[in-house]
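Quality-control log, excerpt.
Job 1 of 2 completed; input and output follow.
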Amino acid sequence: MASLRRSTRVSKPRDYWDPTNSPPHRRHPPAFTIYAESSEHLPEHLPEHLPEHLPEHLAEGLLEGPEDLSEGLSEDLSTELSDNDLSTEFSDEDLSSELDEALSEDEALSKDEDLSEDEDLSEDEDLSKDEDLSEDEALSRQLHEGLGVDPPYQPQFLPKNRAGKSQNLPEDSNPLKLFQLFFTVKEIENIVKQTNQQAACIDFKRPWKPLTVTETYCYLGCLVYMGVQPLRELRDHWNLKTPVASCFTERRFQQIRRAFTIRDPNTSPEQPGDYWWFRVEPLATTIRKACRKYWIPGAHLAVDEGMIPYLGHTRHAIKTPHKPIKQGYKIWALADLGYIFNWLWYSKARGTEGLGMRSCRNTMADTQALVLSLAKSLPNPNSAQSYTLYLDNLFTNIPLVKALGQLGIGVMGTTRVNAKGLPLSLIQLKHAKESLK
């Protein structure tokens, strides 16, 4: 082993902060002082620089002391506001009449509120909310007009803050029943049939035992467990005796893994008109329909890309070396709280699903057209149940925002400087690196 070479240079001394040598912290004197204590603790002399507009007696009272201050204030107040002025401005008759009117109005309002609450509580709550909003808007407008300031931006679409929730779920549901909503027994039976047909064409060292529906559900459950609890190698699940080892032997698991297929290419090859993802059909269509059937989307959703890992050789997969999933199939997903409500397939060779045969005269690019296509899959997008889509700078531009606005769907997201339709003022602010005011 080679000897380690050490440097002969003397290390430079390090400068450490010494709190004893640090300069003392100077406190700036306050601009003014408010005294809230008793008269005994007040200072003897007050500053000489007093405002010129103060009354003479008040200034003299401040300079002389607290005793003279009270006298000066009383004299000034007595001279400025006399009893005659108060009597002329506020009379007992005016006060009594105003009080009677206010009491009568309060009684009428209380009676009306009691009657309206007995008739319909829900309608009154909605009306009161609308009235409160209208009053707040009117007050804010008056305030900004009085101050000469532009009112804050009010978005055109204000959907109610409702969260997504499930629907049409079976009673006494458990994890297996929920899983069977997406992987139905009918689809599993088709997988069993296709897998047994492909296994007949494979030369195993040990005889192949026909696959069953129960074994298929167990195999899919083991795949889910392996995704949640990954190990370095597959055989470690049997070495460490994980739950996978209690379901299958290593030899049986390897046999099913080798023969497992959703559509056997030998007996069911690709037909003219099939989609490029025909190898996962009809299971993919069943799962996509179930995603929309058992979920009510909330008011706030997101559209973004997703990756399905795949390391095989195919012209439809893409490579993203800077992403967590480096290689696989790409989808455009419409998601709500981590739940994928709908998606569109993407192929490197054929583009986005449903957009490959579009006319070249379309003013909207495929990147924006896919967002519009996913938005139209929402239930009743043009009704009072509106939505807000959150997008990144890959999608957002002015034509897309206008098209979604016609559907009653709002948009919130970032955008790029070269986005189509972006105002010149915003582009100049971006280049100047200034913030919006």
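Job 2 of 2 completed; input and output follow.
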Amino acid sequence: MKISQVEDFSRRFKCSPDGLGPEHIREYQAELFKKRKLSPGTVTQRLAALRFFYIKTLKKTWSIAETPYPKRAFHLPSILSREEVAQLINAALTPFQRTLLMTLYATGVRRAELTHLKVSDIDSKRMVIHVQGGKGRKDRDVMLSPKLLEVLREYWRGLRHKPSTWLFPGNRWHTGDTPITTKVVWNACKEAAQRAGLQKDVHPHTLRHCFATHLLEAGADLRTIQMLLGHRDLEETTIYLHLSERHLSATGSPLDSLELKDRPPQDE
């Protein structure tokens, strides 16, 4: 909980929170939308902070029915074709950035998970990569592509000092005691997208979406993709059904079943 959010609510009505009720919360919520133009996600965070404060600190009840959370807008993520992914990787500014992009696409890991990969996580005997402490502090294994293994070995051979812990150590020469930051991954992706001339909004998570969507189009089942992505609920993974060309084209449009004339009648 952020105290600043509770303080903002209190300042709005010039009153202590324990003297404010559901009607004030609803008015505050409306102001966040209409006057401050905040997104549904940000408003939800503000309300969650107030709810925590009222229940845990003030020991008051909180009715979801009286102060409902706003619904979030649902947007499908941008997906690159296989050809566009190849363009992105080929446009990487340096061999190191190319390795980062290839690892993202080959494994579907989140960028924070990528930065925290360790040398010991690469299991070339079982051809898997161990992802430790992922979202929700859950470990999982993902496939190690033979092509990616060769790229990682080439990257390893090119390092001046072989790291003992982190697969991708920080600093210019990759000799730091800490791993690269997520910003390094972000910049590598954005710079490559710009150099490739891609018009879509591309960021590291885009490659995770591409990993899952392209696997689904290649015939992988949703349960397998769920495990590879580290999703807690299968429902999170079903979004890729909306993105897969194979699944979208499997059902024909009803327009195709209509018997229409070749051309419309000429205007009189």
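Post-run check on job 2. The chain has two domains: 3-57, 82-249.
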